[in-house]
Amino acid sequence: MSKIILHPGIKLDQMLNDKGLSQRELSSKIDVAHTVLNQILKGNRFLNVNIALSLEACGFGKAKEWMKHQIDFQIHEANKDKETKEKNEFIKTKTELEKLVPLSYFRKKYSLELNSQDDMNEVLKVYNVETISELKTNLSNYNPKHFRKSSKFAEDPQNVYAWTMLAEYQAAEINNIKPFNLKNETLLIDELKDCFFRNKRTIDTTTNILNKYGIKFFILDKPSKTPVEGKSFLSGKNPAIVLTLKYKRLDNFAFNLMHELGHVFKHLPNPKYKDKNFYTNNVTTKEEREADDYAKNHLIDPNVWDKFIYDNIEFNSEAIEKFAAKNNIHPAIVKGRICFEFPKYYKRRISLSKSNVIGDS
Fold first, then answer.
1. Nearest to 212 by CA among 192, 198, 242
2. Which CATH number is 44's domain given?
């Protein structure tokens, strides 16, 4: 049962009766108009600090106690006001939510300022929860098995979680996509390799190819301290791949996409991976090594690659261009592979950086 808090004037009126004083006698003692005192005693007017000091001066208790009583009463009355109560509940919820989500990220993506309940409901919808309590629980339990932060970057679990939930939310909104069929793997890979080789409107073309074969795909910017380059997962009945486009390099884009396709074809069809998310980011699990091998071997045939390495003690632009043209592989992808496997040649002996940009026209 909630505590009843009365107006301080009610207490003062009781003290008058106990002391046998009339209202006019007290108003004369503290030099306050009788009408003003009468309104205070009825609880219709606030008892201010000057009156509190005057009451103390004539032996009616401490001024601090009167002011505390007045403030307690005002807070009590304010909490009874429906509009004020709803406003304060909103502020409390907003403050809690701001501690759990990267507000600047949602502001950038959706122009959400969390200035209304609708804004907060939209954020909770992205997280697939109905309450702050649910969000707290999900966030505390979030520990994706197939993800390991890069040693070069600080990781913020809340930001990583925000990105992954937004990726799933946006993927779920993609409708009217064709069914996915594992048997189309070779056709899909061949079309993507041709897309990389031409490097014209590469992201749009990639999106169209993947959608054509039943795979949802899009680029999603990431918040700060989110060292992931992409992830693959099941969205309804279709696989989905989302990349962050951390680097706008063709070799990076092609490798990360093929890496995620490795998960799509090798892991996601397996029931044991039904609820798993796979992240591209320097991980060392068995599944990630398999996805890396898938990407390398599908971008460049391993037998062709081995012969190229055997024939070239020194890598130079001419050898790379010749090998790339002969095998319909973009030279930037060849260079990226060399730089990964032979770091000493990185940016020192191979000058193909200008061509290693994702084509947008």
1. 192
2. 1.10.260.40
